[in-house]
């Protein structure tokens, strides 16, 4: 079992392996969600979901629950890998606003800037929790915003710096 634990520790912090594992995650398989890319530094992730018979709603557009699920874990996963084991990172809250019906392949791109990461490190240096807010847009093939998701994360340093 130790070899499995060691393998998992190594694999979950490798962007390509994480992408492959997420694409095999049963809820994503069932919804048709595909993680297209995770940058080597975990600062950019691209996700898409085509409209299929099994993920459309009663009126023939993308099911809202699937739209949210396609963007749910990524800011948390990105920060866990960027900040490392000295930090606790959790999803704390989310809000989704539907702007227009989703048709075709919808897409979301997550990015984290140096300034955002530095702000998180600065705000958590004392060991107090910080709750950064991130916004991601889900767009259709024409670039129209289908939904906007606001994620609030809980980030805390395990031990204060200094």
Automatic annotation (TrEMBL):
Entry-linked Pfam families: DUF4442
Record field: transmembrane: 73-90
Sorted UniProt keywords: Membrane, Transmembrane, Transmembrane helix
Superkingdom per UniProt: Bacteria
Protein's name in the database: DUF4442 domain-containing protein
